[in-house]
TrEMBL record:
Name the record gives this protein: Cytochrome c-551
Stretches assigned to the Cytochrome c domain: 22-110
Keyword terms, alphabetized: Electron transport, Heme, Iron, Metal-binding, Signal, Transport
UniProt KW ATP-binding keyword: no
Signal peptide limits: 1-22
Source taxon at top rank: Bacteria
TM ranges: none
């Protein structure tokens, strides 16, 4: 009986991890489609822009989530030293829902 319960718990954990992995893969694909990865790297800073891990560390806690969603949607400057995001008319359009998904994904990097 204990073995069956342990096996069921392991299957549940694996299914949960598989679901989270699939969701992360989908958001990574969204980041590619929206050309975020043209400037940003997942792990490290680039000459053009901070990496997602650096962004997650700077904005840990999520208090600035709304601000970050706006930055993803509109671009601009003055949010990361001398690095500037292209203005909205210079890049692929990102909806508020997509921006929220991307920001949540980026902020989750701080928890990994």
């Amino acid at each position: 009986m204990k073995t069956a319960i342990a096996s069921m718990a392991l299957v549940g954990l694996l299914l949960g991890a598989s679901s989270a992995s699939a969701e992360s893969d989908a958001i990574q694909q969204l980041a590619e489609e929206k050309q975020c990865l043209s400037c940003h790297a997942r792990d490290d800073d680039t000459p053009r822009a901070p990496g997602f891990n650096s962004i997650a560390a700077k904005y840990a806690g999520g208090e600035m989530r709304g601000y970050l969603v706006e930055v993803v949607m509109t671009g601009g400057e003055d949010h990361w030293g001398s690095a500037t995001m292209p203005d909205a008319d210079e890049r692929v359009e990102v909806s508020e829902e997509e921006a929220g998904q991307l920001v949540d994904w980026i902020l989750s990097k701080h928890e990994e």
